[in-house]
Specification:
Order of helices and strands: HHHHEHHEEEEHEEHHH
Helix content: 55-70%
Structural class: mainly alpha
Mean pLDDT: 85
Low-confidence stretches: 5-18, 22-29
Number of helices: 10
Strand content: 5-15%
Shape: elongated
Strand order of the largest sheet: 3-4-6
Length: 429
């Protein structure tokens, strides 16, 4: 049963359920086992996408409810909300509550009629909104538990698939070493492979571009392990304290914001940084702070950070289906690149262990945290507690969604590259 309702946005974690080039030639030698695993992962990845998107929706709803609660609190000094303002707040709260599927309780409008009853009704309304926030927080923690279990249940499948791709690459390289003669045709026709391997609407340097994919996997894992998990550990420490101390939390700048306006306007204080264009016209895109942040600013930036695989140029269109037949030497270079991807993915076993450990620690600390969010009158403490909640709400997306997006893309691209090699070698028979 879903904790949140509403439109679930599609994320760039898994864009297709078929591996390019397989559907049109399922008899390619050695393709079945590794690619079957990739296809079987599409359903759990889709579920992860949905959970992450719903947590994002929950975070947005919580931010709206917090604003309404703060507004209601601000009216107490002047006698509480009037019937008119209470009606407007109720309608907004009702809309938000319905969107995420939490309770819709709110004091009756008659309660806001008299001077004394207005203050009392306003306090009751604030308590009702507080209860809704607790419902959302509970759902976010449950979603984080699911993400932690997802890592345990599914991430290792990428390692098995990578090992099979590695063995297949070695076998193809051996075939290429003994290649002789001249290719029967100069080109291969495959719209699916063209789409998967093109850069700038051309397929002309696959060996180099496949090697770049391996680098992208390595750099993403290093970023997750070296920065995102490190910040998560500090957030756990802050969650564990009665009054959150954010002074020791820092978040390094992500890069040069080199994506321009390709993805629209970044959230305030953040920027889009993207890799060079990768096969399939894709890029690893990171959303993060323009400059290093510390304390509350670091936590707020962490709550909006993201790693995803997106089109390098969202406005580009792919038109083509002809790929040049690879030479034996080029096939060997491509298989070297695939082995590099496989080795990078398999190296993610350490990331898997770190993620599993840290997500459990976050969940344990988060379970104890909700009492700090609305307790007391310390505005700074509330602000810190709320920021920590938003950061926790983003962890499934940042710590699990990001690595899964890059790993999924890399293994599928590696598989497409090997299909291309097989089709090229077939032209020499």
């Amino acid at each position: 049963m879903r904790h949140f309702k509403g439109l679930v946005t599609r994320m760039a974690l898994e864009s297709e359920s078929e591996v390019p080039g397989v559907a049109e030639d399922a008899a390619i030698a050695g393709a079945d086992s590794a690619e079957t695993e990739l296809v079987e992962l599409s359903e759990p990845v889709a579920e992860l996408n949905e959970d992450i998107a719903e947590v994002e929706e929950g975070n947005e709803a919580a931010a709206s409810l917090e604003a309404y609660r703060d507004y209601a609190a601000s009216t107490l000094a002047t006698g509480g909300m009037s019937k008119e303002t209470a009606y407007a707040v109720e309608k907004h709260v009702e809309f938000v509550s319905k969107r995420v599927g939490v309770s819709k309780r709110f004091p009756a409008m008659e309660s806001f009629g008299g001077a004394t009853s207005r203050v009392k009704a306003t306090n009751v309304a604030m308590e009702e909104i507080k209860d809704k926030l607790k419902e959302i927080w509970t759902a976010i923690v449950e979603a984080l538990k699911k993400a932690a279990q997802w890592v345990v249940d599914n991430f290792n499948k990428y390692f098995g698939s990578a090992e099979k791709l590695q063995k297949r690459a070695e076998a193809i390289a051996e075939k290429a070493k003994s290649l002789s003669g001249t290719a029967k045709k100069k080109t291969i026709e495959s719209a699916a492979l063209f789409k998967a391997l093109q850069i700038g609407n051309r397929v002309n340097n696959v060996p180099a571009s496949i090697a770049d994919v391996g680098d992208a996997v390595t750099s993403t894992y290093e970023r997750v392990s070296g920065t995102y998990i490190d910040v998560a550990k500090k957030i756990v420490t802050a969650l564990d304290t009665e009054k959150a101390d954010l002074s020791g939390i820092t978040f390094a700048a992500t890069g040069n914001g080199n994506a321009g306006d390709a993805y629209g306007t970044a959230p305030e204080g953040l920027s889009f940084s993207r890799s060079d264009e990768l096969p399939g016209g894709m890029a690893v895109v990171e959303v993060g702070p323009k400059e290093a942040k510390s304390g509350l600013a670091a936590v707020e930036a962490y709550a909006r950070a993201e790693v995803s695989v997106r089109p390098f140029n969202p406005k580009a269109t792919v038109k083509g289906e002809q790929l040049p037949v690879l030479t034996g030497q080029d096939v060997i270079k491509v298989t070297d690149g695939v082995e590099k991807i496989a080795a990078a993915v398999i190296g993610g076993r350490e990331i898997e262990k770190e993620l599993g450990t840290e997500l459990k620690a976050v969940v344990a600390a988060a379970d104890k945290h909700s009492k700090n969010v609305e307790s007391g009158e310390d505005a700074d403490a509330k602000k810190a507690a709320r920021a920590l909640q938003r950061a926790v709400g983003n962890m499934a997306k940042l710590l699990v969604g990001g690595p899964v997006a890059v790993t999924s893309y890399a293994t599928r691209t590696a598989s497409a590259a090997l299909n291309y090699c097989e089709k090229s070698l077939a032209q020499y028979k």
